[in-house]
Design brief:
The protein has 7 helices and 26 strands. The chain is of the alpha/beta class. A hairpin with a 2-residue loop joins strand 20 and strand 21. The protein is elongated.
Length: about 425
């Protein structure tokens, strides 16, 4: 039996992989309305001011602020309402001293006005019940306003030629709204990485089949597919390959040629029967970068890269060998596969992940020198969140199904004690 080599802590192992990825995927132009979750391929700039005109932030009256100075409930200012600015229409009204115009939230205000009085701070002299009678009519202003109060100025949100979003930004729903607001209806984004997945093992069968004694259903191909989709990639499942070196080598070479990244499920532990490392080395240079990560579960993970030609340039495609145990596979793919997918799209900083702090309900054993990730359920209590470990071996997928997140046991800490606050990484 061979030995693990180049075993590294997770952060160093991840940095090693990303340093070998030499090119971001080409861009493609897509409609903005469909771009949530995609990564911008270049900086995006506004071609106009937003707002493009001065707008009211309140239902009320556009006024000249000086006409309201000193106004109070005991000594109101008296103004004449000379008209209304309908929504979606140009405010083609000129105010003189002592005049006001009815405006609505989001509507344009006249050029001669410089503030808006909130309708609740006024009272109509003709009808104390309503301010909505046709103008002209008189109102009492019972609170003064300053210049610019309750008004959005031209370009206050975004100025013409401002950079709206940088390259390498993961688009959120609010980003789509901001882009469409300035008329950007399509944009260049990085192409979605195609990630090939090969399940290996004579004992592994398709999930639709009835298992015979000694057989297990392939679930890793599908859990990892879900992680790929969430990270913005496209999973390409290459099927189940038996424990045959030639068959695995042929399938891997074919799938890698069609994809931007390759993932092996199982076949990463150190034994004479497992061939993943040899196959990765045979696919091209540099091959296996390390075999073994200082973490549990998932220590025998393989991290590698394989050179390939694209448009006359040599690039390196990431290749991972995941343990067959489903808990290990998911945790290790999250640790290495997800960052690689983002990196291929030009995102150099991982999106912020949900993390909470919770009080541990019981002791969690560990060994110094490795990071442990322990599934946990979260429960509310009067003193805050309580994290209860869901103990189980790494081949038991329901330890994750029954959990809300993963307790992180730091690299050089020999376990956690009941009652201490711990970091929980949410799914």
């Amino acid at each position: 039996m061979s030995e693990f080599f180049n075993v590294l802590p997770p952060d160093q192992a991840r940095d090693l992989l990303l340093r070998h990825l030499t090119a971001v995927l080409p861009s493609e132009t897509i409609p903005t309305a469909t771009a949530v979750g995609r990564i911008t391929a270049k900086p995006l700039r506004s071609s106009l001011n937003l707002p493009a005109f001065r707008r009211s932030t309140m239902d009320g009256y556009a006024v000249r602020a000086a006409d309201t100075y000193g106004a109070s409930e005991s000594l109101p200012a008296f103004l004449t309402v000379i008209g209304e600015v309908p929504m979606g229409k140009n405010a083609a009204i000129t105010l003189q001293t002592g005049q006001a115009v009815l405006v609505h939230t989001g509507g344009m205000i006249p050029q001669s006005a410089d503030a808006v009085v909130q309708i609740e701070h006024t009272q109509s002299l003709q009808s104390p019940v309503s301010n909505l009678q046709p103008p002209p009519f008189e109102i009492e202003v019972m609170r003064s306003v300053a210049v610019g109060q309750n008004v959005l100025q031209i370009g206050e949100d975004v100025a013409e030629d401002d950079e709206i979003l940088p390259a390498g930004h993961r688009l959120r729903p609010q980003d789509l709204g901001g882009l469409l607001a300035v008329g950007i209806t399509e944009l260049p984004v990085a192409r979605q990485p195609r990630v090939g997945i090969l399940a290996t093992g004579d004992e592994v069968v398709h999930p639709t089949l009835i298992t015979q004694p000694g057989q297990v259903r392939d679930i890793n191909s599908y859990t990892v597919s879900g992680q790929i989709i969430e990270a913005g990639g496209i999973p390409i499942r290459g099927g189940i390959i038996p424990d045959n070196y030639a068959a695995l080598e042929t399938a891997a070479a074919k799938l890698l040629a069609e994809c931007d990244m390759l993932v092996f499920s199982a076949g990463s532990s150190v034994s004479a029967r497992d061939m993943t490392a040899r196959v990765i080395d045979g696919l091209g240079k540099p091959g296996v970068l390390l075999h073994g990560v200082a973490t549990r579960p998932g220590k025998p993970t393989i991290v590698g890269a394989v050179s390939s030609a694209r448009h006359g340039k040599i690039i390196h495609k990431p290749v991972l060998g995941l343990p067959g145990n489903p808990v290990s596979a998911m945790i290790q793919f999250d640790m290495f596969g997800v960052p690689a997918i983002y990196w291929l799209q030009g995102l150099k900083t991982m999106p912020r992940r949900g993390r909470v702090w919770a009080r541990l309900s019981q002791n969690v054993p560990s060994e110094s020198g490795r990071e442990d990730y322990v599934p946990a359920r979260l429960e509310d209590s009067a003193d805050g969140l309580i994290a209860t470990p869901v103990f189980g071996k790494s081949n038991l997928i329901y330890t994750l199904v029954n959990a809300d997140g993963l307790i992180k046991v730091p690299l050089n800490k020999a376990g956690l004690e009941a009652g201490e606050w711990v970091e929980v990484r949410l799914f």
